[in-house]
Amino acid sequence: MVSPAAKLSILAQGTGVLAGSLDQGAGNVDGRGSQAQISEGAVAIDPSGNLLQITREGPFRKISPNGVVSTVLRDRYGFHSGSYIWQRPAIAADNTGAAYIAFHKQSSWSSPALTVLERIAADGTVSEYSNTTNEYISGLAVDSSSGTLYLSTGNRIDRMSPQSVRSTWVGSGSDGYANGAGTSAAFKDAKGIALAANGGLFVADTGNHLIRRVSAAGVVSDFSGVAGQAGFRDSAFGPALFDDLNALSLAPDGSLVVLDNGSVRRVAANGSVTTLYKNEALASAYGVAVNAKGEILINTAEGILLMPPDQSPVLLAGQPITYGTAVDGSVSQAKFMDLREMTRDTAGNFYLSDGSSIRKIGTDGSVSTYAKNLANPGKMAADKKGNLYVIVKGPTGESEFSTSRILMIDSKGGVTTLADEGPLRVVGGIAVDMSDNVVYAVSSGEPMYTRDIMTCGAIRRISSGVTSTVAGYPTFPCSGGYNTLRDGNGTSAQFATIAALSISSTGTIYTADTYGVYQTPSSSYLGWRVATTDPAGNVTTISKGRLPITESLFTQVSGDLYSFNPTSIDKTRVTDCWWCLYDFTRSPNGKDIYAVGHNALLLIRP
């Protein structure tokens, strides 16, 4: 068989697919049908049947009934405006075609988060509400007759007048479960809400695994599900159960359509539940709406599905669902589910984390499943003996802030736990040095998502089964301060949230801190840092700034350091793949780059 490298030897410059298939993926490109790119977001239907969408990336977009995607406002929200939407946005539409959007944004790492609540008229005119109290708004609904907005804050439903007069309608303001009138009722992590024709409200009470009903008089009762009991069961098999309610929409016939942990389910007027469609790729989706024809529109991670009554869904715009299919075979036949991390051994084999599995691409061009049923496999490294070292996080399904372990998978498939960092300790990078010692970076929180977590980090080395600290604080709580970046030797140096690590042929360790307060004798600022740590444990900053967030590092044979973020590779801009790259490594010639996308392994030739 032809080796992967030979397969792409004709590539002179640019990006080529080595294995799998690289679809257009998520993005914000206008166009018709599959020519467009869509990101995951919140959606609502306007009176003309257009689907209105707001995403965490920020553009406010419109998808017509025939699948034409257009951007209404690009530069006002999200990345394009210089701010960041850290939690999912919410949207509602009234009978004039106006949209109401709410999101939690931050304009810089050091600025406070702000809640934005705005009305976008059908002609694009924007007006902003005041009195938002900076609480995260997880759901929105609007009464077109009065202009009253209903806001879900997780444990409370508020009402806001067109004049920004806000008052609590129902909910105690504390997590809990209780039926009753007004503030005597309690919710837990309530998300989507939908206004009923009689002036009442339906609430997706995620934490209580219930759909709740609020009467026009403000009395809360259970509508469907069993309080406190998570599960997945339709009414035909007993009391209906919900697992992870995410969003809901009211259909013209009075039924509710809900998104529940990868499933589209219908809740009839009597509370009975039927599952209409199930796909694992919908597990994180939070955008669903029903138009006047009773057609269900679902915002997936990369597209918009349209589901006519009693029919299977079809793609209206964006890209089809590709998640959930893994097939071994040759590089031209293999399929991948959800590639995230990768490494390459000295023999030229590739190892890629794919869902809960590790996939191997051999030098003969074959793709096989190397290990299965791992708990959230992440970054990897290989030694000269053929051992693979994999970072895993807790038992499958645990919180991202759970235990991090390092597994060793030998050439025969045997799995051994090499290190266990315990609760709330996350391994953010791993490498093997020239002596086959395992070097890894550990932080007290989750790399990339710890803006509000008290963190500290350390570089550790495993040699002959013994673990030692090279630099930084090895234990938590941190005796020298939190979220601090400081040069120095050994434990006098400080790291915050280490998300990437690499080792050069000379033994120099490179690390990327994604977030922390960079300290010098004369000043400090909030940002990121790339640092070197020499064999003696001396930590020196070589690059610092505010963006981009660095997720991966590697050094070339030439000694150049490459840093990576989801939108670009320093020295090699990948413009046709905007948000689809996750990890990368160098090629044997020390010049080319292997990169992993959602469903493909790429060779990038500068």
What does this entry look like structurally?
Among the domains are: 31-314, TolB, C-terminal domain (Neuraminidase, 6 Propeller); 422-561, no CATH class. Helix content is 1%, strand content 45%. The protein is built from one helix and 53 strands. Strands 42, 43, 44, 45, 46 and 47 form a six-stranded mixed β-sheet that branches. Strand 25 (287-290) and strand 26 form a beta hairpin. The protein starts with a helix and ends with a strand. 44% of the residues are buried.
Counted by DSSP, the helix tally is: 1
**What CATH first level of the domain at 31-314 would be assigned?**
Mainly Beta
CATH topology of the domain at 31-314: Neuraminidase
Largest sheet, in brief, is: 6 strands, mixed
Shape: globular
Question: Structural class given helices, strands, pairing?
Answer: mainly beta
Please report which band the strand proportion falls in: under 5%, 5-15%, 15-25%, 25-35%, 35-45% or over 45%: over 45%
Low-confidence residue ranges: 1-16, 395-401, 445-452, 518-526, 546-580
Helix proportion range: under 10%
> Quick one: how many beta strands?
53
The CATH superfamily of the domain at 31-314 is identified as TolB, C-terminal domain
Mean pLDDT: 77
- Radius of gyration, in Å, reads 25 Å
**Which CATH architecture of the domain at 31-314 would you pick?**
6 Propeller
Distance between the termini: 27 Å
